[in-house]
Design brief:
By secondary structure, the protein is an all-alpha fold. Helices cover 81% and strands 0% of the residues. α2 runs antiparallel to α19 (287-307), α10 packs antiparallel against α11 (155-180) and α15 (219-243) runs parallel beside α19. The radius of gyration is 19 Å and the shape is globular. The N and C termini lie far apart (37 Å).
Length: 313
């Protein structure tokens, strides 16, 4: 329990270091690859145990605000990214990867990062779930419209799989909360955060399968992809923070965090078999800023949250 509490208390720092494990130990990454799906589901359950459901209900009672946030995530961000990439010279696979990244919903695990950073975990979870459920509809349409890329995905099948994961996580979390009591989990918040960090480490290791070999064979492409990922992630965050600053710094920073940290793992299943490997490679390398920037930006988050009073809705 003390170890979990330590990990939870130093989550951003641990994730910063841990993201390199899959690169340093490629055999471990290959071994952990089958755990990607279970890790995503486990993160959702742990997040549901960690957040206050009453706070989520507050946002569900504001459908207009929720719709505005989802439109930003699923429409404005990818269209704006496409517009910027149309003006900049660069490899076509990179343009495809960046637009798909911006079109993807927030990764569910970033809700846990929001909690670790002191942001609004309830808002993050509601946004992530709503955007995830819309992904099978929005991403194929945007991919065809902006990129001319036809994703081989069954909308009904994709939504059914997503619904199974989300509803299954809600049912399990509800059962656990009823059996142990909400107070039991609230008293062990630090340990839950530690479990979240461990599960996120498993995901980070698994997603790096094959990346180490590519670093040695194509270092120029890997360097450019990493540079692009470290530029795109904070720019998407900054744009969202500025657009929604009127909600107050805590909520604006939460929306920004969700905008920059996108669930590209969901898109891997939707990409056609002939998809360019460079696009898949970017999806893996884009995990680096997702795991490293929270630690780097922690002082900025703390300064903004302390300096400016949060506006009420």
């Amino acid at each position: 329990m003390r170890l979990l509490a330590f990990l939870g208390g130093h989550g951003p720092k641990v994730l910063f270091v841990g993201v390199f494990i899959g690169l340093v130990l490629p055999d471990l990454a290959a071994l952990a690859r089958p755990l990607v799906g279970p890790a995503v589901a486990t993160l959702l359950v742990l997040t549901l145990l960690r957040v206050e459901w009453s706070q989520m209900a507050v946002y569900l009672r504001r459908p207009g605000l929720l719709a505005l946030l989802v439109v930003w995530l699923m429409l404005v961000s990818p269209v704006a990214t496409w517009g910027v990439m149309a003006l900049l010279p660069g490899p076509q696979p990179l343009e495809v990867a960046l637009v798909l990244m911006a079109a993807a919903p927030p990764i569910l695990g970033v809700t846990a990062i929001a909690i670790l950073l002191g942001l609004d975990g309830a808002l993050a979870l509601v946004m992530a779930l709503a955007a995830t459920l819309l992904t099978p509809i929005t991403v194929p349409l945007l991919s065809l419209w902006l990129l001319g890329l036809e994703l081989e995905v069954s909308i009904a099948g994709f939504m059914a799989r997503l619904a199974l994961v989300v509803l299954g996580a809600f049912v399990l979390a509800l059962v656990l909360r009823r059996l142990a009591g909400v107070g039991w989990f609230r008293a062990r918040a630090a340990s839950l955060d530690g479990l979240v960090v461990l599960v996120m480490l498993v995901f980070a290791i698994a997603i790096m399968e094959g990346v180490t070999a590519t670093i040695f064979t194509r270092p120029d492409v890997v360097a450019l992809w990493i540079f692009a990922a470290f530029v795109a992630n904070p720019l998407l965050q900054a744009a969202a923070v500025l657009a929604f600053w009127w909600l107050g710094p805590r909520r604006a920073l939460t929306v920004g965090l969700m905008s920059g940290n996108c669930n590209m793992g969901l898109l891997l299943a939707a990409l056609p078999p002939q998809a360019d490997y460079d696009v898949v490679l970017f999806f893996a390398l884009a995990q680096l800023p997702m795991y490293m920037l929270p630690f780097v930006l922690t002082p900025l988050y703390q300064r903004l949250l302390l300096k400016v009073e949060e506006k009420t809705l």
